[in-house]
Write a structure and sequence with these properties.
single chain, alpha/beta, six-stranded parallel β-sheet
Length: about 575
């Protein structure tokens, strides 16, 4: 066996672990902080198949199908993606597996890129699915391999839970050769694989039995280990918080849990009996704490630790030792709220909506930034696809006239994820309303991944590209209009016409993400002698536009992408095209 050590991100290590474990099928929908697992896995495409699926439910079902066929398979997603995948997850928990089945789920303590901080361990407990949680990149690889062994041994799907900190931090990883287990033969088994009530009742009994076996085995698993130092302080922890505990409390004894569901009760009781004071350190919900305390074990947990955000070594020192941490004063710099990129085609859409004083039901994507000043158009953001559904609910609550002051805005990838179902619902239930599909030809927010309408697969192969306008017409939408997002006049005229209609209409602003456009850009220049200081060109909030000390406008050449939006807004010819691009 050949071995070598390299530095890897946590997500990169998970991909490597899947490769070494002999995974043959992987499906995912991009979602920060999980996206890079699939992007790293594709380098092994000669050994396995990996895809971007339209959403996490589909990805999970693809992986389940591969498992039923007898190979090791996985699906990757972020924590809110698990909500979308929960339907097949709860049922495959009853079914069990054939080939090993693992779900990589990345939580986001601290809300770096998410709309909530939900804890995957809570979902896993409800679904009765075992959970492994690594603490560094090396464990990320090894736990991935172990997950497939546990899955096949105990006939259970397994969740590998990560967090943003683990996914995007680096550590040393030992690379090993790929081991391909033989495909398991498919044997028709209606009682196991067809979850109708009569069969499901019997399977529920079976998984309870399997879970008890797994809970007993957890007491002797090597990934659940006691690190004894002294008897004064003991800490039960897992995942990234283990690193903080070791740094902040080096004298403490530690029970490090690699499997966080089911918990090793005997091991926990043994550890608790060996220390004078027991702490439970876990980010987000008191999942471990509540179970341990329910067994009558005295412990300190969320009484002194927060249920919100990420932990740190300093936080533990302050909470446990009551130390006053004298942190260096951070540099006094202005806040930098996130903004749309210079030249972003979404900016012109939001400018028009703002000008027309329309409200927008928003969705998940870069365009959520349409909620902040100076655009301030997006009024709601709930979850993937909810813009269209919530617009429909508003119309049914308040009527057709009310909805003429609203539109739904959704990206192309999000539309194909779950928005298309919501549009079908509008048509089926005789709705009124205007949906703007902001088609920038990519999954922009997570780093420009392909999707079903881009014409390219995750593995780089050309493929059929879904025609979004034709898809909308096939659903039954009569009013489908495509517009260049940067053509302000046509866009404004189109929006006015479509929101006035008493039926469903779809406007598709078809303009690629500026970061995808590698052509030579036009160059614009502001002319101070012609500038009237009216500020019209500043209204869209482009970061390339600034004011000079005298109030006239300047354009930062290093940021300008040559979209021409500012020129189209200036009525005094104070912005001119200096050099043509390739557009």
């Amino acid at each position: 066996m050949s071995e070598r050590r390299v530095i890897m991100l946590g997500n990169e290590a998970i991909a490597r672990g899947a490769y070494e474990a002999g995974v043959k099928v992987s499906a995912a929908y991009p979602g920060t902080p999980s996206t890079e697992v699939s992007e790293n896995l594709v380098q092994y495409k000669d050994s396995l198949y990996c895809e971007w699926s339209p959403n996490e439910k589909v990805a999970t079902e693809v992986a389940i199908g591969a498992s039923i066929a007898g190979v090791r398979a996985m699906a990757c997603m972020k924590h809110v993606g698990l909500n979308v995948a929960s339907d097949p997850l709860y049922t495959v928990s009853y079914m069990g597996v054939n080939g090993g089945l693992m779900l990589v789920v990345a939580d986001d303590p601290g809300l770096y890129s998410s709309q909530n901080e939900q804890d995957t361990r809570m979902v896993a407990r409800a679904a009765q699915v075992p959970v492994l949680e690594p603490s560094d990149s090396a464990e990320a690889k090894e736990f991935t391999k172990l997950a497939f062994k546990i899955s096949e041994k105990y006939d259970r799907p397994v969740i590998l839970r990560t967090t943003t900190r683990l996914a995007h931090s680096q550590g040393l990883v030992t690379l090993e050769d790929r081991v391909e287990p033989e495909d398991k033969p498919y044997v028709k088994n209606i009682q196991k694989n067809v979850m109708m009530p009569g069969n499901a009742k019997l399977r529920h009994v079976e998984i309870e039995k399997r879970n008890k076996e797994l809970a007993e085995a957890a007491n002797t698993l090597e990934i659940n280990r006691i690190e004894m130092n002294g008897t004064k302080i003991g800490v039960i922890t897992s995942g990234i918080p283990y690193q903080y505990v070791k740094e902040a409390l080096p004298e403490a004894s530690v029970l490090k849990l690699g499997m966080v569901n089911p918990l090793p009760r005997k091991l926990i009781e043994e550890f608790a009996s060996r220390v004078e004071k027991l702490y439970i350190v876990e980010e987000l919900d008191p999942v471990i704490e509540e179970q341990v305390k329910s067994w009558g074990i005295q412990a300190v947990g969320k009484e002194i630790f927060t249920v919100q955000g990420e932990y740190s070594a300093n936080m533990l020192r302050k909470a446990v030792r009551k130390e006053e941490i004298q942190a260096d004063q951070p540099a006094q710099i202005p806040g930098r709220p996130p903004i749309l990129c210079p030249g972003c085609p979404h900016r012109s859409v939001f400018y028009v909506l703002n000008k027309l004083k329309l409200h927008a039901a928003g969705d998940i994507g870069c365009y959520t930034l349409g909620a902040v000043a100076p655009l301030s158009v997006v009024d709601t953001t709930i979850c993937m696809g909810a813009s269209i559904s919530s617009l429909h609910g508003m119309e049914k609550a308040k009527g057709k006239d009310y909805i003429k002051n609203w539109v739904a805005v959704i990206g192309d990838s999000t539309f194909l994820h779950t928005g298309v179902n919501s549009l079908m619902n509008m048509m089926y239930n005789q709705a009124t309303g205007t949906v703007i599909i902001m088609d920038n030809s990519t999954t922009g927010m997570t780093g420009h991944q392909d999707h079903a309408a881009t014409g390219k697969t995750l593995q780089g192969a050309p493929t059929w590209a879904i025609n979004i306008p034709e898809l909308c017409r096939a659903i039954g939408v009569k009013n489908v209009v495509e517009v260049n997002a940067l053509d302000i006049e046509t866009l404004e005229k189109t929006v006015k016409e479509e929101v006035a209609k008493d039926e469903v209409s779809v406007i598709i602003t078809k303009t690629p993400c500026v970061l995808l456009d590698k052509r030579k850009k036009p160059l614009y220049r502001a002319l101070p002698d012609k500038c009237r200081k009216c500020g019209m060109c500043m209204k869209p909030g482009c970061p390339a536009m600034t004011r000079r000390e005298d109030g006239t406008i300047a354009i930062d050449d290093t940021m300008c992408t040559g979209c021409g939006l500012c020129e189209s807004l200036c009525k005094f010819q104070a912005i001119e095209l200096v050099k043509e691009g390739d557009r």
